[in-house]
């Protein structure tokens, strides 16, 4: 599909695509956004100060999309907080460049579930793909059901391992206006500290066992893997910890 569907300015959700010079699968990401049956308030593609430039062809192909770039690299956490401040929607959905929605109904299903929930963030499933497009597994799988409980029990689960698929989450804007967004004492690790903080402060994390996103291991969101396997994220977690020397 070459053109985005007509955008409803009164829609409840905005979609923000984050990138750092990785534009190889950006068109696939935008195509998956533009076919959504959910009306979208604003679509933003934001580059975190890389040396790459957006193609004029993309701007012509996706006229409803706002393409922007940070003047310098600020890291994932600040990048997400900055872009959240550019929208006024009730909900914000982030995607990494290279990732996609599962199907045309994914965003609509996420918003519907969020509307029925009182959670500040709602969590779904993602399907993990290799860089060659081979489907591998669902994440977090049935483990995600452990999150659909009391905040105290969710914290105990998350303190051992991060079982939240960040690409398969949707946030209420309250997270940024009332909770000040992601913790800027971290540079790259926006997700795991957030789930721990929210559950520790007695916020529920609603989980629905439904695939809503395709998570490509070649995409921007997969470059650092997770805090167990990535030295960058591991160092970020350690040096930003209040108990660190």
Question: Which labels suit this protein?
Answer:
8 helices; nine-stranded mixed beta sheet; 9 strands; 27% helix; 245 residues; alpha/beta
Brief account:
The chain is of the alpha/beta class.
Number of helices: 8
Structural class: alpha/beta
- What is the chain-wise order of helices and strands? EHEHEHEEHEEHEHHEH
Helix share bin? 25-40%
Average predicted confidence as pLDDT: 86
Strand content: 15-25%
Distance between the termini: 53 Å
**Sheet of most strands:** 9 strands, mixed
Q: Give the overall silhouette.
A: globular
Task: Characterize the structure shown.
The protein has 245 residues and is of the alpha/beta class. Helix content is 27%, strand content 22%. Strands 1, 2, 3, 4, 5, 6, 7, 8 and 9 form a nine-stranded mixed sheet that branches. The radius of gyration is 17 Å and the shape is globular. The model is unreliable at 6-10 (pLDDT under 50).
């Amino acid at each position: 599909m070459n053109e985005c569907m007509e955008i409803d300015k009164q829609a409840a959700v905005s979609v923000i695509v984050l990138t750092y010079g990785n534009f190889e699968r950006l068109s696939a990401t935008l195509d998956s956004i533009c076919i959504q049956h959910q009306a979208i308030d604003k679509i933003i593609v934001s580059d975190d100060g890389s040396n790459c430039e957006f193609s004029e062809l993309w701007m012509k192909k996706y006229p409803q999309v706002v393409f922007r770039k940070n003047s310098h690299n600020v890291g994932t956490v600040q990048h997400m907080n900055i872009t959240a401040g550019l929208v006024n929607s009730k909900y914000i959905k982030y995607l990494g460049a290279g990732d996609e929605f599962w199907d045309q109904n994914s965003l609509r299903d996420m918003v519907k579930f969020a509307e029925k929930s009182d959670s500040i963030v709602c969590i779904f499933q993602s399907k993990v793909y290799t860089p060659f497009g081979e489907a591998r597994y669902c994440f977090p799988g049935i483990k995600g059901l452990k999150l659909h409980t009391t905040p105290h029990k969710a914290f105990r689960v998350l303190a051992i391992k991060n079982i939240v698929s960040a690409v398969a989450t949707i946030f209420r804007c309250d997270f940024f206006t009332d909770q000040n967004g992601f913790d800027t004492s971290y540079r790259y690790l926006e997700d795991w500290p957030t789930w721990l903080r929210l559950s520790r402060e007695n916020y529920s994390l609603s989980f629905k066992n439904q695939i809503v996103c395709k998570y490509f291991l070649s995409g921007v969101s997969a470059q650092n893997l997770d805090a167990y396997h990535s030295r960058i994220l591991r160092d970020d977690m350690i040096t930003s910890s209040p108990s660190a020397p």
